[in-house]
Amino acid sequence: MKIILCLLSFIILSSNAYAQNIEGHVTKVIDGDTIYIDNVNKIRLKWIDAPEMKQDDGIISQLYLHDLIFGKKVIAYCNKKDLYNRNVCVIIYNNENINEKLVKEGYAWSYIGYSNKRIDIMQNESMKNKLGIWKTNNDKCEPWKYRKGLCK
To answer: What is the pLDDT of residues 106-118, one digit of tens each?
Structure first.
C-alpha cells in the first residue's frame, strides 16, 4: 500500500510543468512544515500548515518532525516553488508520506485551499481522537490566521 501511495504521489507531482525530485538527508528542520535537504534544498511540505514557531504548539510540531526525519535519507517529490522560492514537496521516508503523517498524528493542519480531501479527513480524525497538538483543549489558532494577525 505504501509503495502504491509513493507511486501515486510521484505520478501526480510529475505531471505538472515544474517537477523536481530531490533525494538526500534532512539537515535542518526549520519548523513543522519546512526542512532543508543536504543544507541547500529548502523544502515546504505540500498540503499542510504547521503551527508557527511563536505559537504555543510550534516547538511541539517542529520536534515531532525533527524526530521523524532529521538525519534521515528522504525523497522529496516537488511540483512548484512558493513565494519564498521554496520547493513545495511531498516527503517520503521509509515508504511513508510524512506530510500526511504530520496531519494524521495531529502535528499539522490541513492547509485550507492547498490540501485535499484525504488530508482534511485525517485532520478531522486526529482532532476527534485528540492526537498531537489536539491533546489540549485550548483554542487553536490556525497558522494562516496567525500570520495575518487574526488570532494569537
So the answer is: 999 999 888 889 9
As given in the structure block, the three cell numbers for residue 119 are 488530508
Res. 102: pLDDT tops 80: yes
| Closest C-alpha among 69, 77, 72, 78 to residue 101 | 69
pTM, to two decimals: 0.86
CA–CA dist 145, 137 (Å, integer): 19
H-run or E-run covering 142: none
Instruction: Enumerate the active-site residues.
Output: 44, 52, 86
CATH number for the domain spanning 52: value is 2.40.50.90
Report d(CA 28, CA 46) in Å as an integer.
17
Q: Are 57 and 49 in contact (CB under 8 A)?
A: no
Extract the C-alpha cell encoding 2.
Answer: 505504501
Rounded distance between C-alpha atoms, residue 124 and residue 7, angstroms = 25
96-97 vs 48-49, strand pairing mode: unpaired
Q: Which domain holds residue 96?
A: 2-147
